[in-house]
Specification:
This protein has about 475 residues and is α+β, with helices and mostly antiparallel strands. Helix content is about 25%, strand content about 10%. The N terminus is likely disordered.
Length: about 475
């Protein structure tokens, strides 16, 4: 057996690609006025040759010195051919009724922000030269500059008011500008205007780099202190860069929520559940494919208020989880902790929302715009007001007592007839682990931090290409048009 060859293209931060490839964007995915998506990278994958006699794999190796020979599986000295595969920028997408937010095959999460990037960049190489921060710990700044421009092109496109087409042609030596590709029209505008990068003063590649790193290091979060040390900038600049990413995530979370709502509505439109009195297993009734798409809801507390913040006074104002996030009235009664509502699907999207209490008027608004009435819903017994609204709502009693006197609690108090909310509880465990890096978050800005984690978790499950194609086909509204 020959040793496996590690390609230098496996490192996303080094080794820039140099061989352009033709545009492979499917014209059916975009409207006639849309231009092809720009490129970020070109990947070359070495093919494997399997010997029919020996039955083992021989991988192609890098070029050796002149005069040396390579031994094939048959024993002859001949060079082993390699094959270059071209991956399309967007795979053919299903119709709106077939879009599911658990990702393709629901097997593995995405490893990078964009998976398939082989379209030619609409900017020339001379217009992407970054004169600042060229020696930043070996970071490939040109790649992440293209990544930022691709995100802006896909999710915040600029339109020509005269020709009504997407502005897709760059301006030489001015990479922040984009103009119309028609010869008789010279309309040009800034790529950054009225986007999360409006009046962005740092080098443009820093936004793409931190966003990609946040995606790769998930579920670990990147704090402002870590951004400051890694990029060699001040803490104030790092904090503002972090806020830009949070604003960008907040925009896309609302689009994902709408796409999630439409998917559940189409999936469970004609699906019925057995009655509670029948005591039938729901997983066997629906099947594994539909059962995994059922949303789960739950609430948890982040950064609860201790008696130290209460001047060692007890709290009597609230009850339940809200008693640990508010101070006593004698010391002001301010909110100190964070109460989070979680809506999650197995191997799919998750939405975290900061709420002041657990009342129906508070949680019902979030639940109504995320989960349609046609969809089944799993929760614990903290949502008794859902029985008359969601007909397919099922709950599990975590405090169920055992019928035998020698046991206090029943062993099916966590899951009964395949009804549980462990998907939401598992995502809340991930949320608590991630937020431990922040030490403390002010409740005033808690929704920005929650949106950032929700966006990264959801995109890691479904991929950025699914979000872009859904916006191009009109399944969800485009943020730049709102």
């Amino acid at each position: 057996m020959s040793k496996n060859h590690i390609s230098p293209h496996t490192n996303p931060h080094k080794f820039p690609n140099s061989h352009p490839e033709p545009n492979t964007c499917d014209p059916k995915l975009s409207s006639p006025n849309h231009s092809p998506s720009p490129n970020l990278s070109h990947r070359t994958i070495n093919s494997r040759k399997v010997s029919p006699k020996l039955g083992h794999t021989v991988e192609s190796k890098p070029r050796t010195k002149k005069g040396t020979k390579k031994l094939t599986a048959k024993g002859k000295h001949s060079p082993i051919p390699s094959k270059t595969t071209n991956e399309g920028a967007y795979i053919p997408q299903p119709t709106s009724s077939e879009i599911h937010l658990e990702g393709i095959n629901n097997q593995h999460s995405k490893d990078h922000l964009y998976e398939n990037l082989t379209d030619e960049i609409f900017l020339g190489d001379d217009s992407l030269k970054d004169t600042q921060y060229t020696n930043t710990s070996g970071i490939h700044t040109e790649k992440f500059q293209k990544l930022t421009y691709k995100i802006l092109y896909d999710l915040y496109p600029k339109y020509c008011p005269k020709c009504n087409v997407i502005l897709s042609k760059g301006v030489k030596n001015r990479p922040d500008l984009v103009r119309c590709h028609n010869k008789n029209c010279h309309h040009q505008v800034s790529r950054l205007s009225y986007t999360p990068l409006h009046h962005f003063k740092l080098p443009i590649w820093m936004f793409g780099y931190i966003l990609e790193e946040s995606f790769i290091q998930f579920p670990k979060v990147i704090t402002s202190v870590e951004i400051s040390k890694r990029l060699g900038i001040s803490y104030g600049s790092a904090r503002l860069l972090k806020q830009r990413i949070q604003v960008f995530s907040s925009h896309q979370v609302e689009v994902l929520r709408k796409l999630y709502y439409n998917d559940l509505k189409d999936t469970f439109k004609d699906v019925t559940l057995p009655k509670v009195e029948e005591e039938k297993d729901i997983k066997k009734h629906l099947g594994k494919k539909l059962y995994r798409k059922i949303p789960h809801i739950d609430t948890c507390v982040l950064y609860s208020a201790s008696q130290r913040s209460n001047l060692f006074r007890k709290r009597f104002r609230h009850g339940g989880l809200t008693a640990s996030i508010y101070q006593s009235d004698s010391v002001g009664g301010n909110q100190v902790g964070i109460l989070t509502s979680t809506i999650a699907t197995q191997n799919g999207c998750v939405f975290f929302d900061s709420v002041p209490d657990q009342k129906a008027n508070t949680l019902g608004v979030l639940l109504r715009k995320t989960v349609p009435y046609e969809s089944p819903l799993f929760s614990d017994e903290g949502y008794p007001w859902l029985w008359g609204i969601y007909k397919k709502h099922r709950s599990i009693n975590h405090t169920a007592h055992s019928k035998e006197k020698r046991y206090k609690f029943a062993r099916n108090r966590w899951s009964k007839l395949s009804v549980h909310n462990q998907v939401a509880e598992g995502n809340q465990r991930l949320l608590k682990s991630a937020f431990s890096a922040y030490n403390y978050v002010n409740p005033k800005y808690s929704q920005l931090y929650l949106n950032e984690l929700s966006f990264i978790k959801s995109i890691k499950a479904i991929g950025m290409d699914r979000l872009v194609s859904a916006q191009r086909e009109g399944f969800v509204p485009n943020v730049s048009r709102i």
